[in-house]
From TrEMBL:
Protein name (Swiss-Prot/TrEMBL): Phosphoesterase
Organism lineage string: Bacteria, Bacillati, Bacillota, Bacilli, Lactobacillales
InterPro entries documented for this protein: DDH_dom, DHH_sf, Nucleotide_metab_enz
Superkingdom per UniProt: Bacteria
Organism, as annotated: Enterococcus saigonensis
Domain DDH: 12-145
Record-linked SUPFAM superfamilies: DHH phosphoesterases
Length: 346
């Protein structure tokens, strides 16, 4: 019987680590197994959570796929338990090998449910570094953390790309004084989001192929984006408001750009009543909400899961509001009560 041609389907997150891990996986498999572009179907880039698209995308794949898939990989994102169960059944029935590579603490339990198919690791036991999806790939498939391969002749180019992404995604660029990449990690992320979606994929592919030296070609854009970011964050923090949730103080504002940097800046603000640094921050964007903290005693992944139908990491998480209500005031009748103008419910 003739062997089946290798055909791979991938799903991944849409952010820097998601796109990076999807393309890094291809680069590693090319080096280890000789896989080339024709071995891959287009990556299904998705958003996490009940309000995201990962469950819908995986279920649609199960329902409509007619390609002879041999391998399936999910990086930097995890479907719900119910959808993973359906995917496992589908892959078994169709003789597809599958694996999830992730680093979010809210998904660690999947390791117990599918020990042969899940590598969801929050931190590395050897280096004590926090994981991103890119570093999980290196640890599982290559056997070492990217930082341990900076001088390795075979892996140094990809290892450095993987770690600059890890430094940004895990916030090591600000929180870890020994991080290999600091400002450069944030600059890479800003450059990534500067471009349209298609251009982001192209940029990441070029970085994987060439290495981080390629970033020097974008130095003028990076410098302009850094100045723009500083102005944006400064203006938004001046408009911050404050509140209390579950006995914890927070600062919040609306923001569509530089969400992580803005959230981290808000988390350093002083609450006007307690005169102490707030416990965490919220950046609101439509129904979406991003949470950040500098407080080691707070686990934002639990807050995000409890109140915002989301999840993530201890210091950085996200979710969505169940309902948003917009009120309007009547300038000609300022004494009248605010009137509900628009009500959005999940």
């Amino acid at each position: 019987m003739e062997d089946r041609k290798t055909l791979i389907k991938q799903f991944s997150h849409t952010d820097l680590d998601g796109v990076g891990s999807a393309l890094l996986l291809q680069a590693i498999l090319q080096e280890q197994k000789g896989y080339v572009a024709e071995n891959y179907l287009p990556v299904g880039y998705s958003e996490p959570g009940a309000d995201g698209t990962i469950d819908k995308h995986v279920l649609n794949f199960i329902k409509t796929n007619d390609a002879a898939i041999t391998e399936l990989y999910i990086t930097d994102i995890c479907p719900s338990d119910e959808v993973i169960d359906q995917l496992a059944t589908y892959c078994t029935e169709n003789k597809i090998t599958w694996h999830i590579f992730d680093h979010h603490i809210t998904s660690v339990h999947v390791n117990q449910n599918y020990p042969e198919n899940a590598s969801i690791i929050v931190a590395d036991e050897t280096t004590n570094l926090k994981h991103s999806a890119t570093s999980v790939l290196f640890k599982v498939l290559v056997g070492k953390m990217p930082t341990e391969l900076f001088q390795d002749k075979l892996w140094q180019r990809l290892a450095n790309v993987a770690d600059i992404i890890r430094c940004y995604d895990c916030w090591d660029w600000q929180l870890n004084p020994n991080a290999a990449y600091k400002e450069a990690a944030a600059e890479f992320n800003n450059l990534f989001y500067f471009y349209s979606w298609e251009k982001r994929i192209e940029l990441m592919g070029s970085i994987m192929a060439t290495g981080l030296t390629l970033l020097s070609d974008y130095s003028e854009i990076i410098a302009a984006l850094k100045e723009k970011e500083a102005d944006y964050v400064r203006s938004k923090t001046l408009k911050a408001q404050f509140g209390v949730l579950a006995g914890k103080t927070f600062a919040y504002t609306f923001g569509e750009q530089y969400t992580s940097v803005l959230g981290n800046a808000l988390a350093r603000l002083e609450h006007p009543e307690t005169k102490k640094e707030v416990d965490f921050s919220l950046v609101l964007n439509g129904k979406g909400v991003s949470l950040r903290t500098n407080n080691d005693d707070i686990d934002l992944s639990l807050l995000a899961a409890r109140y915002f139908n989301g999840g993530g990491h201890k210091r950085a998480s996200g979710g969505a509001f169940a309902e948003i209500q917009y009120f309007i005031s009547d300038s000609e009748n300022p004494d009248n009560a605010l009137r509900l103008f628009l009500d959005i419910t999940r």
